[in-house]
Amino acid sequence: MNTHTHESDGGAGAPEPELVTLEPVTTAVVRGIVPMAGLRDFFDTSFTALAKTVGAQRIPLLSPAFGLYHGPVGETVDLEVGFVTDGAVRPEAEVVAGALPGGRVARLTHSGSFDGLGSSWERLRSWIVARGMTAGEDRWEVYVTEPSPDMDPRDLRTELNWPVTG
């Protein structure tokens, strides 16, 4: 489980970023280097493979789905898609064991459609820089609200997590 402490600025309106301290956690993931245009398909096929493998191995899931991005995002994205698990998954097909890092993490909850994630990531980056911290190479999104075809995209909640130093 994510055990953490909070340091928050508070504020009204849009949620303010906060600094949390996390413990490292074990994950089951599918990793790939994916063209931006293929992200949705990669997520869909990864979740299908993860559900099959984790279900067959009877490993409890401890979190909503996440996407862990390695390095900069450009024409392609190096990422892991998965879940925090209660124990390591045995590698099977494209599903492997992974981890989310522990330590100090800047966090912001994005409300609304995935289309607005870029501006929320930029807002979080600016918040980190304004406080004299350095953003890490890796960062992850936790999809707090599971999307469904008939839902209002404004109801989506995505937690942005960016490890920091300084």
Give descriptors for this structure.
166 residues, ten-stranded antiparallel sheet, 2 helices, Multidrug-efflux Transporter 1 Regulator Bmrr, Chain A, single chain, 19% helix, globular
Task: Describe the protein's architecture and organization.
Helices cover 19% and strands 39% of the residues. By secondary structure, it is α+β, with helices and mostly antiparallel strands. The chain folds into 2 domains: 25-100, Alpha-Beta Barrel (Multidrug-efflux Transporter 1 Regulator Bmrr, Chain A); 102-166, Regulatory factor, effector binding domain (Multidrug-efflux Transporter 1 Regulator Bmrr, Chain A, Alpha-Beta Barrel), CATH 3.20.80.10. Strands 1, 2, 3, 4, 5, 6, 7, 8, 9 and 10 form a 10-stranded antiparallel β-sheet that branches. The model is unreliable at 1-12 (pLDDT under 50).
